[in-house]
Model the fold of this input.
Amino acid sequence: MTNSSFLLFSQAKDLILQTAKSIKCSQIESIKSSNAVNRINAKAITSPINVPSFNNSAMDGYVIRQADLANSHSIRVAGSVFAGQKQSVDWPQNSCLRIMTGAQVPDDSYAVIMQENVQRVDDHISFDASQIKAKQNIRYIGESVKAGSEIFSAGEKLTITKLTTLATLGINDVTVYQPLKVALFSTGDELTSIGEALTSPNSIYDSNRFTLSLMLKALGCEVIDFGIIKDDLTLITNTLKQAAEQANVVITSGGVSVGDADYTKMALEQIGEINFWKIAMKPGKPFAFGKIGNALFCGLPGNPVSALVTFDQLVRPLIAALYGRNDETPLFTLKTVSDLKKSVGRVDFQRGHIFSNNEGELVVESTGEQGSHITSSFNHANCFIVLEKDRGNIKQGERVTVEPFDSYLL
Done:
């Protein structure tokens, strides 16, 4: 049974998204498109031109008029048209023109015949007229993009391929959201920063802050790293205050459980507000969401797998919503080839691997032990196996819901 004080995962996510949509990131800037890779578009982009901007040939071949289909047994080649050619070509009646890919076709053209479909002898060609259709192999003005049409909407990530599209339109400047400022720190006396020597047998490396920083940067955020904060209520409280003054979002790792030294929740209760801090999900039950001043706060669990899963499932959609994006990943069902252990009461995000079996059917398998401390479960994973709250153990051959990893996890 789910403890009544636990918020359902779906309720927690809805609350986070509703909060984000009410305070969308509003700071924008204009930059050169060459500097805009993976930035978030802030204004709808419309095309200033038609693409193509003139009628042109899609193939190397021969351009003919409709009346000359009757001369398919033998028609004279009167000249050639090349891409980029500026002067017009004399095109007498009862003749055709040799034309190259991208070259402008004359206004009275009926079709372009591929060069492979003609027989040429000296300056005459012959072809099968029954195979020729109107507008064949001709690209017409605005066929790909019409001037004034919307190319990309606000909130879209400007990937390399999208920026390439803008380049074909001659667009050199784009308006994008300024990167969200995200303050990040970990709490715990046992933690040691990556690259430093462990100070005692009980010390562990702060892999969470390292991992979260990488994911935030991949999502287009500016990370303000406050490092490791010791388990001290005053230190944590002061750091939260400083972080909230500098950032749009404050993210912590650890300190939101119910242990005697979990001070983050205590500090947040003093200087901010908590919307919720326990979710019926696994891994990641202790997840806090609230506000400190004008900054949103996300308190992630200390276990590495729990931190990564809650970030992907709750923080990533939050960041997308602040940028005005809908970042939902499609879900679908597959047959599992592994037995899966599951207790009723919480939605469970297990790490899985989608592959094609010997019959060519897509199936999913578990990547092994699913403990919240076992980060190796991600090494060969490419999806989450999402097991519903009220579902128990799953046998091999049953169908399960899968959520492919977002590209930043692959």
